[in-house]
Amino acid sequence: MEDPRKVLKNLKIGQIIMAETELESIIAKILCLSAKSGFIELENVRNLKTNYVYATPQIYTFQQIISIKIVADEESNKDTSSSMPASSPEQYSKRKEIESKYNLSNWEINAISQQLASVTVIYQCSQSYYASISDIKMQSVIGLVVEPVSGGRNNRTSIIAICTQKNVYIYDITSMGKLMRDLRQILEASRPKKAVHYSHLIGDHMVHRHQLQLAGLFDTYVVHKMLTNCTNSLSLLELLKITFCMPEQYFKNEIKSNTYLFDVQRRPLEKNITQQIALKVVFQLKLYEILVHKSLLAHVFDKCSHFSKRLTETESSEAVMLIQPGNTRIHDEIQPDEEWTSLLNLLNIND
Q1: What is the C-alpha R_g of the chain?
Q2: What are the domain boundaries of the chain?
Q3: What is the dihedral angle through the alpha carbons of 201, 115, 113, 162, rounded to the nearest 10 degrees?
Q4: Is the per-residue pLDDT at 218 higher than 90?
Q5: Domain 4-72, CATH 2.40.10.340 — does that match?
Q6: How confident is the model at residue 76 (pLDDT cuts 50, 70, 90)?
Q7: How far is CA 52 from CA 42, 46, 48, 135, 276, in A?
Q8: Which residues make Cβ contacts (< 8 Å) with residue 154, sequence separation at least 6?
């Protein structure tokens, strides 16, 4: 997020912006602005934390706005999400830090807001439970958060949160009484893959609390350390803060550390607890996507993009006609990349 005074000259009516004030983080469309008077009028204003949408336009002074970022231009609806620079596998493995934060596009922010607005909290084997199991089984990868997990086996399971591409499910294990068979089978299966953070703690918790061995794990903590050689032991929320270009207070932990265990174990579950856990699991899955597609596979996407333009550079249409499936001349240009393959094998991406 940037200083509003620096962004002011680039603001135009119709743009989608993300802004942060002392009280809220919002995304909205610019309806009117006046540099001389120092105010900005916004419509379709959505609070990113609560997903509340104001029914009428809102006016803010520049003094109220702490930071601001242009998300998209209405005319072009451009995806302004930045990608980590593509390079060779050697450069990825030797990189000391992620060079830039990932800017979520407008449609990504809207999709996440919709997910967080329709979280399904499951207390028993109801219709919503079986519907969630059917949805999860259709996925290739899911986000997984277990609470509390900081003590591994030393705390009983309170909540298991799972995020699919469209839905968020929070299973109240305390109210359900035990881990149901369908959910156990999903956690023990190699598919869908499970994006987690701190798999050593989750694994210890599951083995000793439920006699369950997790499979198909993609640990964002492990992968981030391997890609950046980061020396800090970053929690999920800490890693989300340095990865995504979002308002500072967006990832603020609403659960106080000194009452953490009490808050997640207390029943009935408070809304701020379920919202915080839902936020974590949604961005856990998004973090998986960023690490895979913007870092691990960026080199592969570059190769594919280059190959897709191979024939467009040929001026002769007759030369294109001569390239039949059995003609391997241009296909031979694609050679195995041993170092890249080794990196993927090391990270178990090929499984």
Answers
A1: 23
A2: 4-72, 89-296, 308-346
A3: 0
A4: yes
A5: no
A6: very low
A7: 15, 6, 8, 27, 16
A8: none
Bridge partners (DSSP) listed for residue 162: 144, 169
Instruction: List CB contacts of 207: < 8 A, sequence separation 6 or more.
Output: 153, 213
- Does the pLDDT of residue 24 top 70, yes or no? yes
d(CA 322, CA 103): 43
Q: How far apart are CA 317 and CA 58, in angstroms?
A: 57
The owner of tokens 């699919």 is: 164
Task: List residues bridging with 196 in a β-sheet.
Answer: 219
* Cβ neighbours of residue 134 closer than 8 Å, sequence gap 6 or more: none
Write out the two tokens for 10: 């680039």
Q: What is the mean pLDDT of the chain?
A: 80
Tell me what pLDDT residue 78 has: 46
Residue 90 has pLDDT above 60, yes or no: no
Q: What angle do CA 144, 217, 180 make, to 5 degrees?
A: 50
Spell out the SS3 assignment of 189-257: CCCCEEEECCHHHHHHHHHHHHCCCCCCEEEHHHHHHHHHCCCCCCCHHHHHHHHECCCHHHHCCCCCH
Q: Tens digits of per-residue pLDDT, 168-179?
A: 999 999 999 999
CATH superfamily, with its number, for domain 89-296: Ribonuclease H-like superfamily/Ribonuclease H (3.30.420.10)
* pLDDT tens digits along 313-339: 666 776 666 666 666 666 666 766 666
Instruction: Identify the pLDDT of residue 2.
Output: 59
